[in-house]
Amino acid sequence: MNADSPMTPPQSAPTGGVIETQAVIVGSGAAGAVLAKELAEAGIDVVVLEAGAWHVPERDFNQREETMLGRLFYDQGARTTTDLGVTIMHGRGVGGSTVHNISLCMAPVAGILDRWAEEYGLMGMRAPDLEPAVRRVWDHLGINPIAPEHINANNRMVQQGAERLGWRGFIPHHNRVDCLQTGFCILGCTYNRKQSMLITYVPRAQRAGARIYPHARAARVLVEGDRAVGVEVEALDPQTGTVRNTFTVRARSVILSAGALLSPALLLKSGLANSSGLLGKRLHLHPSVVVGGIFDERIEGWRGVPQTYIVDEFAHFYRNGHDGYLIIPVFAHPGTAAVMSPATGAAHASVMARYPYLSAAAPMVHDETHGTLDVLRDGRLEVRYWPNEGDQRWLIDGIRRTAELYFAAGAREVMLPYGEGVLIRSPRELDVVERRGIRKYDVAVASVHPQGSAPMSADPKQGIVDVHCETHDVRNLFVCDASVFPTSLGTPPMVPTAAVAAHTAAWMVGERRRLFE
Amino acid sequence: MLPSADHTPSRREFLRRSFGGSLLLAAGGLLPAGCGGYPNREGETLQVLDVKSARIVDAIADAMILETENAPLPRPSRLGIAARVDGMLAGIHPAIQDQTVLLFRVFEHATLPFGLRASRFTKLPHAEQRAYLLGWADSRLEFRRMAFQALKMFVYATYYTFDETWAHVGYDGPWVGRFEIPPFAPPLDGSTDHER
Question: Under a CB-based contact definition with an 8 Å cutoff, are residues A478 and A470 in contact?
Answer without folding.
Answer: yes
